[in-house]
Design a protein that fits this description.
- The chain has one domain.
- By secondary structure, it is an all-alpha fold.
- Helix 1 packs across helix 3, helix 1 runs antiparallel to helix 10 and helix 2 runs antiparallel to helix 8.
- It contains 13 helices and no strands.
Length: 288
């Protein structure tokens, strides 16, 4: 498999920026629409936005021999989406994105267990520092700890499994194909809960729903490309850029502020991510 760390990191930075915008739209829509309805339209409109790209590449781009992996990726990814959207609706935007930060901490472990990828010594240290940062952010055992954050952590575990699945498919499945099958399968699965939670969006909801689908699909394409070309354990920490995006949007739009413990935790996590991707000196390469 190719392992283009720099390109993968840049794709993650772009993808997380787009998904942060999508998160702000989801939080806005959650005031009037249920999580089930938002998840369905996120997937449906995301699929619609992807169709012109599929048409540009031709129908041959959809031919696959790994439908079982596409089904696995869609199932765990959709489950993570339900959890994360619920957290977005019920927590401040900045904190919801910070809970999501636990995802990269599980990715190297899952990649090692499933793909046989080696976790380098530096990555072990980065994971440890990252978990310390998450403890500062979640503040367990204090009055400011929100139990709903545990739902976000569960969603983060599922999201990391979905991303490692992308890595598994990366050598033969292009980004457009992976995102297309996710859109089709997740749209079908997310339509099931609508039988008991359906509500028609109002006229003023539709522009936001369409924009949500557009930025969500472009962000997903960027992340899919990233995990297809680079080792998840090396580029995963760059999703911590969502701290900056989410905190900024939450502050500008909703006037949300961050506690000092959150700032400390975020700093630790960002440090761990950047340090993990620093070039390894030749004299120590064999040791790391």
């Amino acid at each position: 498999m190719p392992n283009k760390v720099l390109q993968g990191a840049l794709f993650i930075l772009l993808g997380e920026a787009l998904l942060a915008i999508m998160g702000a739209i989801i939080k806005h829509l959650s005031d009037e629409l249920s999580t089930e309805v938002i998840v369905f339209y996120r997937n449906l409109f995301g699929l619609i936005m992807l169709l012109p790209i599929v048409y540009h590449h031709g129908s041959g781009i959809l031919k696959t021999h790994k439908i079982h992996l596409h089904l696995l990726r869609a199932t765990v990814g959709l489950s993570a989406m339900y959890g994360f959207f619920y957290v977005l609706a019920n927590m401040p935007l900045a904190e919801a994105f910070l809970v999501k930060l636990t995802s990269p901490l599980f990715m190297p472990i899952l990649a090692a267990l499933w793909l046989g990828e080696v976790i380098k010594r530096r990555t072990f240290w980065a994971i440890g520092i990252g978990f310390l940062g998450v403890i500062f952010i979640l503040r367990p055992g204090t009055d400011t700890f929100a139990p709903i954050a545990l739902i976000g952590i569960g969603a983060a575990v599922l999201a990391s499994a979905a991303k490692v699945t992308i890595r598994k498919m990366g050598s033969t499945e292009p980004s457009v194909r992976i995102v297309f099958y996710f859109g089709v399968i997740s749209s079908l699965l997310s339509a099931i809960p609508l039988f008991w939670t359906w509500q028609w969006p109002q006229l003023h909801h539709w522009p936001w729903i369409a924009l949500m689908g557009l930025v969500g699909t472009l962000g997903q394409l960027s992340l899919t490309r990233a995990y297809s070309i680079a080792n998840p354990g090396q580029i995963g920490p760059y999703v911590y850029s969502s701290v900056i995006y989410g905190a900024t949007l939450g502050w500008v739009i909703w006037g949300e502020s961050l506690l000092m413990t959150t700032i400390i935790g975020s700093s630790l996590i960002i440090f761990a991510g950047v340090w993990n991707l620093r070039p390894i000196a030749k004299k120590t390469a064999l040791k790391d």
